[in-house]
Each structure stands twice: as C-alpha cells, then as structure tokens.
Design brief:
Number of domains of chain A: 1
Order of helices and strands of chain A: HEEHHEEHEE
Largest interface: A-B, 40 and 54 residues
Strand order of the largest sheet of chain A: 1-6
CATH architecture of chain A: 2-Layer Sandwich
CATH superfamily of the largest domain in chain B: FAD/NAD(P)-binding domain
Number of helices of chain B: 16
CATH topology of the largest domain in chain B: FAD/NAD(P)-binding domain
Radius of gyration of chain B: 24 Å
Distance between the termini of chain A: 27 Å
Largest sheet of chain A: 2 strands, antiparallel
Shape of chain B: globular
Helix content of chain B: 25-40%
CATH architecture of the largest domain in chain B: 3-Layer(bba) Sandwich
CATH class of chain A: Alpha Beta
Shape of chain A: globular
Strand order of the largest sheet of chain B: 6-5-14-15-16-13-17
Radius of gyration of chain A: 13 Å
Number of helices of chain A: 4
Number of strands of chain A: 6
CATH topology of chain A: Alpha-Beta Plaits
Number of strands of chain B: 19
Structural class of chain B: alpha/beta
Strand content of chain A: 15-25%
Strand content of chain B: 15-25%
Oligomer: heterodimer
CATH class of the largest domain in chain B: Alpha Beta
C-alpha cells in the first residue's frame, strides 16, 4: 500500500504544536545513504522523514513530529538520534 | 561526601505513574518535586480513551469523586471484521463504572491540581536531560537549566524512557516489543452521539469497541498483521484508532495512518464517524514486551514506574491502572528508603516485592507468553477466523433454500481442511496455552 502523504498532511493540520527552534531529531546522512530499507520514510505517522529526490538526502521535518518514538526503534541502522524537544516545546495533544 | 539535596524525592514525568508516585510521597509529608517536560501535563499523552476507576480510587481516595469525566464506559464490544461483515459480542452493564472516558489533557490537568493541593511541587516546562550520579548512585537530575538533587529519583518518563535506558536499567528496544497506534478524534454534537450509539444524556454510559480482523479494503493481501482497532465514545466526540505491531508495519512497509484510513472505510465503521469533524490526529507507542521485557526496576537511588517499565497488559487494554498503582508503589518504596535513610538498590528492592504482591507483576507474569502466542497466530486472528465467522453466519442467516446440514458439514470440512490442518492444531494449542497460563497464573 502506497503511503498517502497528502492525507497525513491533512490530518496534521488538526494537531497543535509549540514549535522548537531546533530539531530534536538527527541522523547521520552517510549511514542513511547506504540504507536500503529507509524504514523511517514510510513508518512515521507524521511523515517526518522525506528523501529529497534531487539530492538523495534525508530531510527531517521535525516540526511535524508527534513524539511517538517509532522511527528510532524501527530504524534498521539505529541511526536516529531521538531526543525530546526542548522544554515546553513540541506536540500538544488536547483531545487524545 | 555530604550532598545538599533539594528534595526528598524527584519524580520525572507528569503522567499517571509520576503523579501517583508524587502523591504517595507528599501524603507522608516528604518534599517531592514532580518534573514535566511539557507545558501541560497530559499533552504528550495518548491512549485508547478510558482510565480505570478502581486504580484512580485507590490512589486518590477521598478526592476521587472530584475527578470529572466525559462518559462512563460500561459497554464493551468485541467485534470480528471481514470485508463486508462484522460479528459483534457486547457486554453491557449500566450500573458498573469501572472506566471513565476522558481526554488525557483533561485527566492529567485535574490530577495535577489534586496533587498540588496535597503538597507536591509541580514543575512544568522542565526537561530532564540526564541523571546526576555520585559513585554510581543516582542523586538527582540534570534539567536543561540546572541540577536538582534528591536521594531518590523515580523515573515515570513514559514508553520512550530515555533516562531508564541511559543508566542501563532498560535493554535495547526491539520493534517486535511495541505496538504503534494512531488515533483520530471526531467531534459531533452531544445529541448526535447519543442517538448514534443509543447513549443516555446524563453521561452515565458510553461505549468501547475492540475490533479484530484486517482482511478488508487495501489491507487485503497482508496476511499476518497483528492488529486491533478500537473506538471510544466521549461526551461530544468519538475516538477511533488502530494499533499494529511495529515489526509488522516495518516488514510490510505500512504506515499506521494508511492502516487507520482503511479501518475508517470499513462499511460497519464508516457510519460511526460519518459527518463528524476530525479535531485531532495522534500517535503513540505501546510497550507490549510484557514480563520478559520488564527492565531492571531499580538501582542505587532510582526507581522506574509506568510505561517506562513496560507495565501494560495489551490483551485487556490495561495501562493506566498499571501506571497509577506502580507509581504508588514506587512512592511507597521511596518512603521506605527515606525512613531507613538508605538509598541503595538493596533497600529499594522492596519495590519489586510490592509489585510482586500486587496485580502488576502477577498479571504480567501470567500473561508473559500470551501476546507472543497470539502474535504467532496473527493470520488466524486477523484473517482466517473473521472470514470463517462470516461464512458460518451466512449459512445461519441466508435461508438460501439449501439443506442446513449439508452446508454445515461443508463448512466444518472447509474449516479444518480449507487450509493446512496443522494451522488449526497450532491455533488450538496456542489458545489452550493462553488459557492455561492465565488459569494457573499468579
């Protein structure tokens, strides 16, 4: 089943965030370049990880992160450094 | 070395486990600081939709009645879905109030106010980045701003517990040990929900549904998804979600949002959220490793509780009760150490004894193999039986002018020989093992 990024984007418009200035997620691009599975690009419920078609680099849209932690565990290369967003920042679920 | 402590106990994480731990310590007149990384406790949390009242009562005692909720959940349905059918079993008891549907934002908000009134120092917007140690003993936490010191630190920092992992209490995470869940909340006006689900106006009843089955829509063809969907009714909204084992999602290159979209389209689910306005989408991990993956629960100066310790019984959708009670017991263990003025692992090991004497480690032990046994039979649970249930009820309900006996004989033959008969035997063994484990459990 093809990932429906458009639908995810639509759902994300319902989510409130208190956005941090810097990313709480980081990857080593060299390791990503060698990764065949690219699990992060399909597993993330907020579609945070996108592979740039031109550069081949992994773009990390940390602003959309729902802070579930799935990417860090699912990454076959253990290449995602996952921290919490800085104090008071990140996702704000009000109805979950 | 003489250490100048800022508090008797520091609790990391303002969820049900942390709140309950802090309350236990404060009730004894000790100084306890509760640290929460978000601005509003509860705003990072997501669950199916109901908190269990028995545990809430045990923790909050006389204040329990002050806790407001959206609906009492006292109608439980287990449903098996095929492409176009569902078979549902409902247990309903209008006089029971074992669970409250309430949004986490509201639940934690109320609980925090209650514990603040009992003397807990609550610090929101406080991110703990590390633990402070002295001669291998935890003596405090390092926040993004400063160090706070206390002889006991309780880690209730949730399923991703970075701190428990950092100090080596917890093993490395494996995909197979987690369910990834996504949920959408739909707003209606209150009356519409009451008509749709046949609920009373006074909020004294509400519905929880658990759906088995994955053989529908675009999910057809995925033969081994360990998956369960769920629905809860709130005052003026409905939550619909799904959980799938993270290993299954990874192997099948599936996104949980897409899985939920297929669930939403099922002909017996779509009408339940029809015309509702989606007001929130969320996702969360659920620890499902069970007893075998429970981490080291304590070390010198530190205790782990709640989701951070993997305290969940996935079979029965139980988590908040495990969090609340493990938090209370962690608080009790901290008090024991303060009393003895000894914060070593051997003194804090009383925490494990408390847990072993409670339902927490008893249930986790009794259910230690169940998720795994069921996981191995996920094709049977998600595909084979939901379809066989449909075939059976088609015979019963179709009045198709064919002799019933011949149809039922054919059904029985197909039931066993329609696939490798070994699978049926394996299922029987797996289910029997589950039943025996529980029956002869602790």
């Amino acid at each position: 089943m093809e990932k429906n990024s458009k639908e995810i984007q639509k759902k994300l418009t319902t989510v409130k965030y208190n956005c941090a200035d810097s990313s709480h997620l980081s990857v080593n691009q060299e390791i990503c370049a060698k990764c065949k599975e690219k699990t992060c690009t399909f597993i993330c419920p907020a579609d945070v990880y996108i592979q740039d078609e031109n550069t081949g680099q992994l773009v990390v849209q940390y602003e959309n992160c729902l802070e579930c932690g799935a990417c860090k565990i699912a990454c076959p290369k253990k290449n995602i450094e996952w921290r919490y967003p800085s104090a008071g920042c990140g996702v704000v679920f009000k109805n979950s | 070395m003489n250490i100048e402590y800022n508090a008797d106990v520091i609790v990391v994480g303002g969820g049900p486990a942390g709140i309950s731990a802090a309350l236990e310590v404060a009730r004894a007149g000790r100084k306890v600081v509760l640290l929460e990384r978000s601005h509003y406790a509860g705003s990072k949390n997501m669950y199916g939709g109901a908190v269990y009242t028995h545990a809430l009562k045990e923790v909050f005692q006389e204040d329990f009645d002050k806790i407001s909720y959206e609906r009492v959940i006292n109608s439980h349905t287990w449903a098996f879905l095929s492409e176009d059918s569902s078979f549902e079993l409902t247990y309903k008891n209008s006089s029971n109030n074992h669970a409250y549907a309430i949004k986490r934002f509201n639940l934690e908000k109320q609980l925090i106010e209650l514990v603040k009134s009992k003397g807990v120092y609550f610090c929101p917007d406080t991110l703990v980045v590390d633990l402070v140690t002295n001669e291998n003993r935890v003596i405090g936490v390092k926040t993004s701003i400063e160090e706070y010191l206390a002889p006991v630190v309780i880690l209730a920092d949730g399923v991703n517990s970075l701190l428990a992992r950092k100090i080596g209490l917890r093993q490395d995470f494996k995909r197979h040990d987690f369910i990834l869940s996504a949920k959408e909340v739909y707003k209606f006006d209150k009356k519409t929900i009451e008509t749709k689900f046949n609920l009373k106006e006074d909020l004294s009843n509400g519905i929880n549904k658990q759906y088995f089955g994955s053989d529908f829509g675009k999910l057809k063809g995925y033969k081994n998804l360990f998956m369960m969907s769920f629905l809860y009714t709130f005052k003026d909204s409905v939550a619909l979600g799904v959980g799938v084992n993270l290993e299954d999602l990874s192997k099948n290159k599936l996104n949980i949002s897409d899985v939920l979209d297929e669930v939403k389209k099922h002909p017996h689910i779509a009408p339940l959220i029809e015309n509702g306005e989606m007001i929130e989408y969320s996702a969360h991990l659920i620890p499902e490793g069970g007893y075998k993956k429970v981490p080291a629960l304590y070390s010198d100066g530190v205790i782990v509780a709640g989701d951070a310790a993997g305290f969940v019984n996935g079979v029965h959708f139980e988590g908040t009760n495990f969090a609340l009670i493990s938090g209370k017991l962690a608080g009790k263990a901290a008090l024991h150490a303060l009393e003895k003025e000894d914060f070593s692992a051997s003194t804090l090991s009383v925490y494990r004894k408390y847990l072993e004497n409670s339902f927490i480690l008893k249930d986790l032990y009794s259910y230690r193999n169940i998720i795994n046994n069921l996981y191995k039979r996920s094709n049977s649970l998600s595909v084979y039986y939901p379809n066989k249930i449909k075939e059976f009820f088609e015979i019963i309900t179709s009045a198709n002018c064919t002799s019933k006996s011949s149809q039922i004989r054919k059904f029985a033959y197909n039931f066993i020989f329609g696939r490798n008969p070994l699978d049926t035997i394996k299922d029987m063994f797996a289910f029997l093992k589950c039943a025996l484990d529980v029956f002869f459990g602790k």
